[in-house]
Amino acid sequence: LIKEIIPMIDAEYRTLSDREHRGMAGLSMGANQTIQITMNNLDIFSYIGAFSGTSNYPSTDPIDPATFSNGKFKDGAALNRQIKLFWLGLGTKEPSPFPGSVGAFRNMLDKAGVKYVYYESPGTAHEWLTWRRDLFQFAQLLFK
User: Fold this and answer.
1) Closest listed residue to residue 79, CA positions, set 118, 22, 120, 40
2) Overall pTM surpassing 0.70 (yes/no)
3) How many helices (H) and strands (E) does the chain have?
4) How is the chain split into domains, by residue range?
5) Of 9, 26, 81, 129, which has the highest C-beta tally within 10 A?
6) Domain 20-139's class?
7) Angle at 129 between CA 127 and CA 132, to 5 degrees
């Protein structure tokens, strides 16, 4: 992604190629990958969108920000300076373990003081309507 896809996109399209104008979003397991990739490359990304998934999936256990993901979430103030938008979305009818997993991740972000936007898609489950609504809401907040 970092060495092949981003350079290809930048070569093919008119992009603003600095981190202030670059984001990544994913749905379900792609949300997990999005968080992992962006958190390991905050020099490249400043917008993160996770639709129906987080990097602790499928666990619903409490998360310690000091140890989770090698401590990347322990300094909320530093992350807040680096991340312009951290988006978490979920359908209100998602099956287990998604609500518990996302809830545990949100609790960890709250504990660390990491700012994020949380959106619930009313009446939807782990499905395309949830993710279309997520994208619609998320996209309105990008690059402002």
Assistant:
1) 40
2) yes
3) 5, 4
4) 20-139
5) 26
6) alpha beta
7) 115
